[in-house]
Design brief:
26% of the residues lie in helices and 21% in strands. The protein is of the alpha+beta class and 362 residues long. The protein has 3 domains: 2-77, RNA polymerase II/Efflux pump adaptor protein, barrel-sandwich hybrid domain (OB fold (Dihydrolipoamide Acetyltransferase, E2P), Beta Barrel); 131-165, Dihydrolipoamide Transferase; 172-356, Chloramphenicol acetyltransferase-like domain (Chloramphenicol Acetyltransferase, 2-Layer Sandwich). Helix 1 (127-136) runs parallel beside helix 2 (154-165) and helix 5 (228-242) crosses helix 6. The two termini are 37 Å apart.
Length: 362
Amino acid sequence: MAEFVMPQLGADMTSGKLLRWRKNVGDRIQRGDVIADVETDKADIEVEVFTTGVIEKVLVQPEEKVPIGTVMAIIREEGKAAAVAVPPVSAVPAIALVPAPPTIAAPTVSAPSSPAEMGGPRLHISPVARKLAADLGIDPVTVTGTGPGGRITMEDIEHAAQAKKAPPVAEATLDRAARMRQIIAAAMTRSKREIPHYYLSTTIDMSRALAWLTQENLKRSVEQRLVYGVLLLKAVALALREIPELNSVWSNGKVMQCPDVNVGVAVSLRGGGLVAPALHHTDHLSIDDLMKNFSGLIQRARAGSLRSSELSDPTITVTSLGEQGVEAVFGIIYPPRSHSSASARSRNIHGRPRGRSHRGPC
């Protein structure tokens, strides 16, 4: 049997809430299938499974919030027999229950349904508007009339119905954004306090790369054009392939070299906050595939539909503010990654583009 646990989707995550199961007990699952949606303080995440088999039992129900590492389901691995549940035998003899005497329901009294029935002022509303209110589920008593003498019109009922359907200001969303900022601040403070940082900077002549990018985009349609950022991502990935010792994370008190190069991309969210999901196997992707995956990753990050592996697998993070005129960004290391890379672009007084990058090992 294998255990499916609440994953840790970032160093700042301590618990998660199960939103829903995508698979049921008895369903067969493959490694990499999304079987659950989990809510964190940063986003709603599609959680993948890394075992092939059959779901034997679920231990956590939707809307339950549990700490990371909590067993959420039991999976019978492929090729293994199902566990046979044996009902427990009670040593206490069964006791016949005496049926309780039937209860007599108390008489109910209907409450008056209108101000007139309660002896209050008569409601000024036309029969047509009253019927519309009944059809739309609107209580006319709660509607302020704008007609002559305060009479409630059909337009008043329609406006009340629209206001009822309109979602109120999402306090939960605002609270979530505030929590995200607090969590990011706490994680970055801890990183700066506990991880030794140092910064290196160098000037790189990017004129040939930018000239190639300009000429390449002239041959492409608008939908297929490349952005400057994919060149930075590809360069970082190839550098990690050349120096694999830098492609590592800090785990269990030591540096663990990772077999795959998964470059994380810092993405700002529209509602506030920041996530840094991974582009898997960045070093093996062509420029076109990298551009496609990069665009899709940003869209899904902002739509709240990231996968758990995309948040747990980055081995390095890249941030670029060059298109805003920033020459260099010295990022804070995000645990458990042991390095961060910040790249940017500007033009010097001679018009030659240049880039800067840094790495800070823990």
